[in-house]
């Protein structure tokens, strides 16, 4: 069942989201060649612990505070002391904070050093897809308005839009109804958007195929053809007359 949040609940979710936005602000400068993904994850754990929160992914059984996915890794990259960021990488940082029972969720993809024009365009388009999805997220519209906005923009570049994973409700749990696909496929979710809903919109776009597979660690999802992927995400709250992006700093 879709949870309609009260003003007090949205205030709590907003505090968690602002903390997450601050974490990104402090974390991203550390995403440099030679740093291990475990070091980046440790940074997240320290930050979240210091503010009195908990890594939200722990409740899902994920072995890290951050899903750190590099290049062909679409989502759920497991932090490792043996995996290092390299020049030219696209590094996706998908993080959630549980702050007093209020959940935030966002992802930023970071270009490292000198990145190819092809990958930079993928990052730009995925960022624009996120903006288009948020613009379509309005009270009274339906979920497919978001899906259509993301899909139509990405399709102009012949990119693969990942359909096996999607955005979702969030705020009181990590994953809540409704699902918000990035592809408006027939028979897919199409609930009406209502004031009081809090959702995570998250385009996952591949340079090549839209198909994905899961590695033997049981978590890391990669593009099926090994092409580079990009993932951007924000948590937003829907009001009668506007939609507020919560996971950005004012």
Give structural notes:
Belongs to the peptidase M24A family. Methionine aminopeptidase type 1 subfamily. One of its GO terms (molecular function) is initiator methionyl aminopeptidase activity. InterPro entries: Creatinase/aminopeptidase-like (IPR036005), Pept_M24 (IPR000994), Pept_M24_MAP (IPR001714), Pept_M24A_MAP1 (IPR002467). This is Methionine aminopeptidase. This protein is α+β, with helices and mostly antiparallel strands and 250 residues long. The chain has a single domain (7-245), classed as Creatinase/methionine aminopeptidase superfamily (Creatine Amidinohydrolase), CATH 3.90.230. It is 27% helix and 26% strand. The protein contains four helices and 15 strands. The strands form four sheets. It has a five-stranded antiparallel sheet with strand order 8-7-9-14-15. Strands 1, 2, 4 and 5 form a four-stranded antiparallel sheet that branches. It has a three-stranded antiparallel sheet with strand order 3-12-11, with no helix packed on it. Strand 14 (234-238) and strand 15 form a beta hairpin. Helix 3 (117-135) packs antiparallel against helix 4. The two termini are 31 Å apart. The model has no long low-confidence stretch (mean pLDDT 98).
């Amino acid at each position: 069942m879709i949870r309609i949040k009260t003003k007090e609940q949205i205030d709590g979710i907003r505090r968690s989201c602002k903390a997450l936005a601050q974490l990104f602000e402090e974390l991203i400068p550390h995403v440099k060649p030679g740093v291990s993904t475990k070091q980046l994850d440790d940074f997240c754990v320290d930050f979240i612990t210091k503010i009195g929160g908990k890594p939200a992914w722990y409740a899902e059984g994920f072995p890290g505070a951050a899903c750190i996915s590099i290049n062909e890794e679409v989502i759920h990259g497991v932090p490792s002391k043996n995996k290092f960021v390299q020049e030219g990488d696209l590094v996706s940082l998908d993080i959630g904070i549980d702050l007093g029972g209020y959940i935030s969720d966002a992802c930023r993809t970071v270009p490292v050093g000198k990145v190819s024009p092809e990958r930079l365009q993928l990052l730009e388009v995925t960022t624009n897809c996120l903006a288009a999805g948020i613009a379509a997220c309005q009270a009274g519209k339906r979920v497919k308005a978001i899906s259509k906005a993301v899909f139509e923009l990405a399709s102009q570049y012949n990119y693969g839009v990942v359909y096996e994973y999607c955005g979702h409700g969030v705020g009181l749990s990590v994953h809540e109804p409704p699902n918000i696909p990035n592809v408006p496929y027939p028979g897919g979710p199409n609930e009406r958007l209502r004031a009081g809903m809090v959702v995570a919109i998250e385009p996952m776009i591949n340079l090549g195929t839209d198909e994905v597979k899961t590695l033997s660690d049981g978590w890391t999802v990669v593009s099926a053809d090994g092409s580079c992927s990009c993932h951007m995400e924000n948590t937003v709250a829907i009001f009668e007359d506007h939609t507020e992006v919560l996971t950005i700093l004012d």
